[in-house]
Amino acid sequence: MALLGIDLGTSSVKALLIDEQGTPLASATVEYPLSAPKPLWSEQDPADWWRGTGEAVRAVMAKAGLSAADVRGIGLSGQMHGLTLLDKEGQVLRPAILWNDQRTGPQCETITQLAGGKQRVLELTANVVLPGFTAPKLLWVRENEPDIYARVAHVLLPKDYIRYKLSGEFATEVSDASGMSVFDVRNRTWSDEMLRILDIPRAWMPRCAESHEVTASVSQSAAQELGLQAGTPIVGGGGDNAAAAVGNGIVREGVVSASIGTSGVVFASSEHFVMEPEGNVHAFCHALPQMWHVMGVMLSAGGSLRWHRDVIAYGDPALTGRRTLGSDTDPYDIMLAQAAHVPAGAEGLLFLPYLTGERCPYPDPLARGAFVGLTIRHTQAHLTRAVVEGITFGLADSLALVRGLGIPIHEVRAVGGGARSAFWRQLMADVFQTEITLINSAEGAAFGVALLAGVGIGIWRTAREACDATLKVTTRVEPTRDSAVRNRYADMYARYRELYPALKNTFAQLST
Hints:
2 domains; Nucleotidyltransferase, domain 5; alpha+beta; 18 helices; seven-stranded mixed beta sheet
């Protein structure tokens, strides 16, 4: 018996099969294109999602050597916020507008004004309206493509389009719906008030379930196309961050994840609805019933280190991949090994990791990166250490917001590329003054929704039980006992916190 997790990402879709003990059996990934027809636009053809999903599912079934009858349940995860519009016949009306599309700034302002201001928006949806969210995109279509808008009958999120293609059902779940700007996060249902304010028919919204609930089953036609069995249950699943949190065991208060990918994400579970008063962190429904999560996002975490690698440490980005560094040597490993020999605080050098603007705690698209404190003594290794420390300080900003909401933090699970470095894990422990852990899985969102599928068909009673049965801590890193290191980081973080307020106006002036 096996469970299938499908994670529809921005650049590729991943299919993962696990057995009833949670052991991964096989995975397959298929890429698809991203379109930017105009500056700041980001779109994809849902047909590419479906084609990629079919290829990934067929490939993973072949790799695992399983029959269609072996797959007992399916979970879906995917990129959040994307606007997918269908007509009454279920045909796609236009390319999906994605989470990273930035065209809808005016529509965000319109929604906020129509609702009665920022605080009223927070009361209704628990989150400020951002260009990445779904409702502003829908208003943009209404204003700019009225012929298409007139034919809309269904509004779906990306993963829920895959559900529709698998089953013919229009459904979503609470964690993904939370990021649409028309969802009442506190009460885990559509906000009739926000829909009324924006004149969006409730009938366009899919049925909304909890993440572990069975929402549909595989149709005969989809079964034949993908090599699955008709009638296989499909659970609600989760938005990518909530699904990844389940896959990383972030299912109880006190255990928080810090993910270092291109962006940086701090994810904390809460057993009570909580909301940052100014909306500086996202407040969404978790993929567990009667649980919520708060999430802080910095836009250039690993992205800052990659920039440093390409532009400073190894020069011309076009040459980076052709450098001869040794048969199996990763440039990041070299950089971090050099940085580890530099004292904590990089001898007075700070780095602001705002290379693409910032989201938390400063929702400022005009924020910029900076080295501050450069002297002739500083080497490339100092710059690398300052970049890594700056990224870690940025994550600490989100952790501070989480703590400010009264959510306890006893353990931080390091996730993503940065978690591979023992040096970086120790640095996080020392800056956060919290235990840093690694677990025995790196499968993320696909693993999380496979577990949710197991809950939906009764293998485990709850997602927390599923995580406890399958995930184990493999590495623990405690903060250093050296008070000089602790004090040095505390002082440098305090100096770091002073820089954005001091430079905010300068950043804005430089961007004009």
